[in-house]
């Protein structure tokens, strides 16, 4: 039985327009609410269409309201052997995941969770190819999800620190606001996004510094909560004799203080 390819969802292009018009300063959930679609679908579109990478003829950079986004090559440098022999996963004897019922999902086509077939066709009909891969292989281990979120927080903190240094050194004295519009494609081709307006603005240095520091505070708070949640999960799974107070919360306070100390030092350089 041949399956006809599904037509491109028009909301996919509309979602990107909304994201661009907000300069990237809008969440997937907010976009999904405007379009009446699932938030995860917006996340897949964002990943697949590479919203964060916009080619620019000379600089290969796009500056949005929240700073510039540079296109970078993914993966480790050529010749890097850090991962040789690494099979991934936890070390032998690790018991962090004892008692949790998470997993990596089933292989493609796995139907172990289908009980009546009532929802199966509806679900599969609403997923595109990328979403089906994500559905089958996404890891649902709570501890692993938390670890991934912590890594993302660390990356964001680093980017904010670098951006703060650029603002203080005067490298980000201007911003570019762009407005995009969907234009019908020729000869039956799908609509394409075109820039219809561009406005250069002078940035207030102090205002930019405060905005980045506020955002940094929010990310640090989120990371602290994630670490507290991870610690609680590990303590709950540990034997009673190993679950006594180990000074973890005090260590978290020290971590936050070190970050703000680095922020203060960057303002002196």
Kindly describe this structure.
The protein is mainly alpha-helical. 47% of the residues lie in helices and 11% in strands. The protein contains eight helices and four strands; from the N terminus they run αααββαααββαα. A two-stranded antiparallel sheet has the order 1-2. The chain has a two-stranded antiparallel sheet with strand order 3-4. Helix 7 runs antiparallel to helix 8 (248-268). The protein is flat. InterPro entries: XtmA-like_N. Residues 4-59 form the PBSX phage terminase small subunit-like N-terminal domain. This is PBSX phage terminase small subunit-like N-terminal domain-containing protein.
Key attributes of the depicted protein:
mainly alpha; flat; PBSX phage terminase small subunit-like N-terminal domain-containing protein; 11% strand; single chain; 8 helices; XtmA-like_N; 269 residues
What is this structure's SSE topology?
Blueprint: H1 10-21, H2 28-35, H3 39-48, E1 61-64, E2 67-70, H4 120-125, H5 129-137, H6 142-169, E3 174-183, E4 192-202, H7 205-237, H8 248-268
Antiparallel strand pairs: 1-2, 3-4
Helix pairs in contact: 2-3, 6-7, 7-8
Pfam family, one: Phage_terminase
Protein name: PBSX phage terminase small subunit-like N-terminal domain-containing protein
Domain PBSX phage terminase small subunit-like N-terminal: 4-59
**Could you state the order of secondary-structure elements as H and E?**
HHHEEHHHEEHH
What is the structural class? mainly alpha
Helix content: 40-55%
Radius of gyration: 23 Å
How many helical elements?
A: 8
The outline comes out as: flat
Low-confidence stretches: 54-74, 110-122
Mean pLDDT equals 70
Percent strand equals: 5-15%
Largest sheet: 2 strands, antiparallel
